[in-house]
Amino acid sequence: MATTQTDLKTQDVFVTDEPIEDCNLTSDQLAERMQELLGEGFRFENRTYPSKSEVIEKIILDTLALDRQTAALKAAKAGKDPRTQGQQPDHTRPIYIPSSSEKLSTEEYNRLMTKTFPKYETMKPGEWSEENTKFVAWDLVKRYPSNYIGKTNRPKCTPFFKNMTEEHTWDFFYVYHPKALDQAPFIFIPTEQFDHFLDIINASVQTKLTIPPGKPSEKFYLTFGSSCTICPKYIGRSSSHNEYKALQNAIPAPEDEDACKEATVHGMEFLLANLSAHAKEDQPKSKSKKRKQEKTQSREENIYDAQLYLGIRPLPSVTEGKDKKVKVDEPVPHVLDKDVVFMCIDIEVAEEHHGTVLEVGMTTLDTRDIVGVPPGEVGRDWFPYIKSRHLITEDYKHIVNKKYIKGCPDLFDFGESEYPKRKDLRDEILNAFAELSHADKDKAPRNIVLVGHGLSSDLTFMTGMDVHPWSVPGMIRCLDTKDMQQAWREETQGRSLVFVLQDLDIPSKNLHNAGNDAAYTLRAMLGLAIRAKTDEQAATEKNVVVS
């Protein structure tokens, strides 16, 4: 039987139709009051209120707190911790930590970290390094973060460089300036050790630091000995900062051989260029006239060196037979310097995407093959000794450039084209270098001279393929036919390959095929070297007649 409102009043219980305010009751207390008001027969069908006695609190949504939480989650996903922003990195902990990169397993990382360079372990202080060993100046290594690392990666990479004398093993070498033996020597390390150091950084913090491509890479791959009379001398090995400081005081005093008194003129120039290659990029720029003179001299050196390699010009140290004339219908009168192999590379990329390599042309000329062979006009009689290859990337063989240039990948005129897969293209190029470098398996690597027309572009494309010519054993020089023609004609700008060929009266066809371009570029190099020499001889004879 239901209890009415009248009955409730008789029980002396205050009841009102108004809502109860400020009712601070627990769930159990509320249930007991309801039973008192409604009688003992009142029951909850489902006891859904909490079993523990808790005061029900109000729920407040703080929008600012939610915004802070969202920002923190975004920062965490981006690899940042808002609590540590602005704090200095902790240099007391080891900076080399196992990589979490999927590209490098723990085993590979450990193998990288424990890599040693045993060929330097047995060297003694003052001992000469091997010829053609690649070196980089220690000053340039120390400036690498500020010069070659972007603002994004610099904060996480700089600690490695600040601790590199404490956390890494280095082998140090020195070279005295032959004209200033009273000054402190220049310090160098093997380039392969710096490469290894960059690999460690990349594996530790997932960056992609490399030696810069193109022209700047040359100062990271300095070679000594083959073109000058001295090689860097060993100081010692350092694995801690204390050892590093001790080695600074252990450099032997200069000796007579450090003056390089027997060096040729060209050899001395080569040595001094190596010693100044690491000069700071942030030094005040020279005057415009001086820069132009230096560029002109560099272009002229392309011709000078090519003539030395081809026996067209005598070595500076040679006195007997120095005045012998070059006659195109007779064998060259001088020794072919350095016993080199010329290798020309031309790379064709997609017009709309320069990272897509469509073709690679590779052409070689071994100077041993032309010993005793008359060159002919512009070197025509040497052309048959040139060997050419043409690689078309199988994955992109359907792509033909036609917007800016007229590509013709199917018109290779010097043999049969090859079709390697994209993944195999790098190995094809590296194997070609290796075959030249180690042609004599039981002897030292052959000297290689890389040739190109506008070579900096091809070097950049090769770097994108992880091909670094200056790391190839025996690589001693790069020659650019664009620079050679500009120096020969004393022009203010370089010309296209087709213009250079026409200027030399060398017939050509089907250019913008990588294989053909490489073959014609090497022909142009021969023609420029010979024409520059014969023109020089003609000018000298004319002056003699006039006087």
UniProtKB/TrEMBL annotation:
Residues 341-527 form the Gfd2/YDR514C-like C-terminal domain. One of its GO terms (molecular function) is nucleic acid binding. Signal peptide: none annotated. It comes from the Eukaryota. Residues 75-97, 279-299 are annotated as: Disordered. SUPFAM superfamilies: Ribonuclease H-like (SSF53098). InterPro entries: Gfd2/YDR514C-like (IPR040151), Gfd2/YDR514C-like_C (IPR048519), RNaseH-like_sf (IPR012337), RNaseH_sf (IPR036397). One of its GO terms (cellular component) is nucleus. This is Qde-2-interacting protein.
